């Protein structure tokens, strides 16, 4: 589907094309790429799915590598007719080659600006802390967000293994973000159920939830999300791969939609999940008979929830609402 699209949940280190990988490591052939960078259609769980991310991270440890990957992703977005994206990454993952976290962000930010100029795709950056990080590490990352205030770094997120690491070490960082007016999203309701979403709402107060699909298991939570107008960044293929649901027919996206929630459709990890937004849309069309009206509204939901100023949203809204 060639509709203009908005994508809010997209991991940089999980979205390296084969062309970018070959440029960074010519020894990797296409068969190796398919078997090491791309997950099988069904993983054991989220932790199993995430093991593939290390392949991309390994190739993102100096400035040139970070620039190649960022600009490559911007070209992927253009090919998918994405008009606006928020790209997230964990700065501390890319310091193994001697770069400081600040230099990592500075490098990706510069490459993003170049990618915007090259492709015409508008985009922003979200910095991630990870579940297994310490309080000090989370504070370092949220302070980086603050230090890039006024730039294309627009938000703070927590990602990684939700099932095995509690939120305790990260509450201070999210309180800091709230006090500084930093927009917040948080992975929850993916590897764990409604309890994870409840505690995230209580302690992090995010405007958006990454995934959040298991909220459907608690009708009271669904009502709360609707009342608070919390946007869900839904990634259907990823949710099937991480074994939350058996098949696409089992996915609750249609029920969440019918409940009146603000939801958007995303790829999560374009390489690990081997999916584009156009593929996600086609799957929802085939499975739930979604049509253009559904996708346009989902994109408007996403744009309304984007970490953007209203003037920029207004311009993008015109593109989304344009009917050929």
Give a description of the structure:
The mean pLDDT is 96. The protein has 324 residues and is an alpha/beta fold. The protein is built from 15 helices and 8 strands. A 4-stranded parallel sheet has the order 1-2-3-4, with helices on both faces. The protein has a 4-stranded parallel sheet with strand order 5-6-7-8. The protein has helices at residues 18-24, 30-36, 46-50, 53-58, 63-79, 101-119, 135-147, 171-180, 194-204, 219-228, 236-241, 253-258, 277-288, 292-305, 310-321; strands spanning 5-11, 82-89, 122-130, 153-159, 185-188, 208-211, 231-234, 263-265. β3 (122-130), α7 (135-147) and β4 (153-159) form a beta-alpha-beta unit. It has a single domain (5-307), classed as Alpha-Beta Barrel (TIM Barrel). α1 runs antiparallel to α5 (63-79), α7 packs parallel to α8 and α14 (292-305) packs antiparallel against α15.
